[in-house]
Amino acid sequence: MSCNSCSTGKDGQPRGCKNNGTCGTDGCNKLTVFDWLSNMALPNGEKPFEYVEVRFKNSRKEFFKNTENLTLSIGDIVATQAQSGHDIGMVTLTGELVRVQMKRKKVDFTKEELPKIYRKATQKDIDIWQKCRDREEEIKKRSREIAIILKLQMKISDVEFQGDGSKATFYYTAEERVDFRQLIKDMAKAFGIRIEMRQIGYRQEAQRLGGIGSCGRELCCSTWLTDFRSVSTSAARYQQLSLNPQKLAGQCGKLKCCLNYELDVYLDALKDFPSQDTKLYTEKGLAFCQKTDIFKELLWFSYKDEPANWHVLSKDQVIEILEKNKKKEKVASLEAYAADNIEEEKVVFENVVGQDSLTRFDKPKKSSNKRNRNRNRKKNNRNRNRNKKNAS
């Protein structure tokens, strides 16, 4: 989904809404939910659902009660209740879909403790909010310097101001427990605001900051992924991936979430597939499985005495040999089965213009041998002329 302000311009270049991740029409943000009930009217006598979903800084959402019966739509800036003062956020969902989202996130909308929406934000509220957001990068840099001076083993990854500018939440990551009491005192004295420290995980940090993954696309956690499921190295083993931590780890330093995307397909394919520890007994010797290809349903085996010589067998052939081995029967050899799987390589593409070299237009380099011969010939001629002069 994308909004009109962020679509491609007439010259083919992206125009961009220049809202720094907070799209004015809420059409291209992460965590955006498409309101597929927006064009449907409520039945007669039905009142609209009184709760509204509001997003803050494009990274967290909360539900608020519309006690003033304000006419709200997606994209409206509203002033909401906070622990002290008020906060400014953007409406991302209204109507019956809010009820569905609250049930999905297990939020009880019958409780009276849920916060309320005060009003639609005035221009003064928006100016204060925008001014506070402009200070976040500077304060984040300064807070990191203070943490380094205090020698705290922590990383402050993001700062979020409350809408009225009276409070700032600092998100940080750390390996161990950190005593940041002195840090709070120094930051409160330097910035003149109330400080709240909130520790987050490394995946939550990558979700807030965003970035480009090794696939060339934006990080899943910062665009559409809302829950983090545990990822183990067994997911890589089932998919026959090399256990290289540099390739399997994402920007958060943990295993990539996308390792779980196709895991169920591999597990279903492996249900009726021989295991990697399969051994075949033949008259020629014992054979071990070296490699499997789930998609082509092929397995490669080698004899114990010839580990470098692999023989390719189909899944059905391996199952057939295993059935014979269960009856204590040995097959003659793997070569008899592997001969049926040999296929001639088909030429998929031919260069109709001829096998042209990429360097055919480059100037040919002079060989060093020819250059050395010419140099030696000139040297010999000079010596010969010098000898003639001395003889005369």
Please tell me about this protein's structure.
30% of the residues lie in helices and 18% in strands. With 392 residues, the chain is an alpha+beta fold. It has 4 domains: 19-119, no CATH class; 127-200, 2-Layer Sandwich (GMP Synthetase, Chain A, domain 3); 207-269, no CATH class; 279-341, no CATH class. A 5-stranded antiparallel sheet has the order 2-1-4-3-5. Strands 9-10-11-12 form a 4-stranded antiparallel sheet. A 3-stranded mixed sheet has the order 6-7-8, sandwiched between helices. The radius of gyration is 34 Å and the shape is flat. The N and C termini lie far apart (96 Å).
Brief write-up:
This protein is α+β, with helices and mostly antiparallel strands.
Q: In terms of topology, how is this protein built?
A:
Elements lengths: L50 E6 L3 E6 L11 E5 L4 E8 L2 H9 L12 E4 L2 H27 L5 E7 L5 E7 L7 H11 L2 E6 L2 H8 L10 H4 L9 H6 L6 H4 L14 H8 L8 E3 L4 E8 L4 E6 L6 E5 H12 L7 H5 L29 H24 L1
Parallel strand pairs: 7-8
Antiparallel strand pairs: 1-2, 1-4, 3-4, 3-5, 6-7, 9-10, 10-11, 11-12
Helix pairs in contact: 2-3
Keywords summarizing the entry:
12 strands, GMP Synthetase, Chain A, domain 3, 4 domains, 392 residues, five-stranded antiparallel beta sheet, alpha+beta, four-stranded antiparallel beta sheet, 11 helices
